[in-house]
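Internal QA ticket QA-208
Title: Verify multi-chain structure generation after dependency bump
Assignee: T.L.

Test input:
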Amino acid sequence: MMPIYLDHSATTPVDPRVIEAMLPYFAEKFGNASSLHRWGQAALAALDQSRRTLAEILNARANEIVFTGCGSESDNLALRGVAFALRARGAPAHIITTPIEHHAILNTATQLEKEFGVEVTRVPVNRSGVVNPDEIARAITPRTILISVMYANNEVGTIEPLREIGKIARAQKIIFHTDAVQAGGYLPLDVDELGVDLMSLGAHKFHGPKGVGALYVRAGTPLVSTQTGGSQERARRAGTENIPYIVGMATALKIAQSEREETNARLRALREKLIEGILERVAQSQLTGDPKNRLPGHASFVIPGAVGDEMVLGLDLAGIAASTGSACTAGSAEPSHVLAAMGYAPDIARGALRLTLGRGNTDADVERAVNAAADVVGKLRRK
Amino acid sequence: MMPIYLDHSATTPVDPRVIEAMLPYFAEKFGNASSLHRWGQAALAALDQSRRTLAEILNARANEIVFTGCGSESDNLALRGVAFALRARGAPAHIITTPIEHHAILNTATQLEKEFGVEVTRVPVNRSGVVNPDEIARAITPRTILISVMYANNEVGTIEPLREIGKIARAQKIIFHTDAVQAGGYLPLDVDELGVDLMSLGAHKFHGPKGVGALYVRAGTPLVSTQTGGSQERARRAGTENIPYIVGMATALKIAQSEREETNARLRALREKLIEGILERVAQSQLTGDPKNRLPGHASFVIPGAVGDEMVLGLDLAGIAASTGSACTAGSAEPSHVLAAMGYAPDIARGALRLTLGRGNTDADVERAVNAAADVVGKLRRK
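Actual output:
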């Protein structure tokens, strides 16, 4: 039987239409976009077109899009860039974030705190993983320079109330960043409507290639470049532009966003079937994250009496690709920081299982996954 | 007539063998290398194999190779990583470099100086662009933490005396970094023989893709990560690994290094013919950089009475891709910082022309380029 991939939050296969769009830029239109000659100008035209595509989707201006090497780099540039631009104001700068962010935010905030004298407040979330905008508002001090809250969580799929936080940030004139890496392919990205000043995207979460991302930077946002060199990306991110991947990212985002409603409806139906199946067939299993306000293809559970990594390995043997919550920390013995912040005890959090659906999945995949999970958990519990 | 690409120092077309090696990793073996399941493990195996390939070529250990998003990122990580690791020693840390480095070094050193209290000494070079190791030695102070000298210069092709500088650095227990981005495809990369502790590479200079690089980090070298998040690359560089490009980089470097002697002999012969042709046909033209100790395919000139950008545009019309010296600053009105450091007056430096040969070029290309250059310069001088 063909193995089934149910780990689309970790990464996705590149869409064939994206590969086709990228291919001419490897060996034919291979120029350096900074070169004055025809090869350079062809590369520059592709770069400009891709930038306009992203800008249009985000309802932004083309010069507010900075292409980066991945979503993590975008997160790093947002936090470091703003902190280094504003930390010299005198008193220590203050950043507000949450404890359920991706490690690209968490660890960057911690490094800024430990090495560069920045203060960080991590506003707690509720049992569903939702942050309360009022608590964000209460955490603001006169030294707050940045609020960073993710759009949707990678481990439990919960969507955060960005619009409400955006209004608070706007009213207090504080820069608002969102890590939209998980949300990029599924949720609306209008930066004005969301009220964000900075937004991170990574192409490989929406059937684009790994190794390219973008950071939306609202005009006027103070930002120190954290990768200096040539004047690419208006001196905000040095390095010869990766034209094939930038073209690929624009193509992938355009496809994902134009097919969004159709895809999401299909994925939501599959997800509900998957959640019902697991809750019914795997005794004591509990859904984690918000039951309704979650990413369309995202199902996450805690399963008492089973260990996450063991379930993942058992499911792999059964031909199902799953994860415990985050590929970035797979194999780590630490229970999830996200589940901990949501109030799950370590022994419960250890039984985390994440199944994330994508475009290619079918009803039959869901059935096989539910059967396999019931079987694997049963065996692990009998051990 | 087919246009001729003579700008291989700016970037190169991806080798068809490299494209072939990369293709399976886009949509088939597309896993996240951190995932525990079979897709993840297939990606991890490709990552490990690529790392071993680079390690073997560099005479290094696999865990001393950090894959990055480009050569500029590698340069940034080297300088920032060491500076942030060692700046807290008390007195301001001190870095020694040269004024002819790539902007990824120059501008990073300047940012460290202006924003982070690091002291920087830029040791001058001679008329050929060669730095004197004795002057490096004389610049060392008790607070010197890092020496960064490029392996070969991008604008004038000059190869620097790394081995001698490496011995000085070793004797004084100072970390030694080299930007080998231009040298990677053409010169030996044995890190022990060169005596370097850190070495930057970028794949697109040797027929690999744009958007992937590597930093060699000798075991024990203090380095603070400048892109934090997941624990990829042993927590030295966060971000989901770009497996297709990493495989592509390893494939490209293996091809370039295994064919190096043959390629270099051929390119050197073409280069000599090109240099002779230009010096003979273009009155008052002068070769810049070291006449012998230079990159095999690299020819660079100053041409009095002509402006670099105008020559490049004229040559482009004639179907020849050339540059003034660095794609990263093309279109800039500033005369080259490299030629300035080599003692060329601004009005002479303004006439810079760089023609860089690659694998695909032929004798006929050189003849056409010489004729076109003579013609274009003649027209510009008559204007």
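Spot checks passed. The CA atoms of residues 133 and 161 of chain A lie 7 Å apart.
Status: verified.
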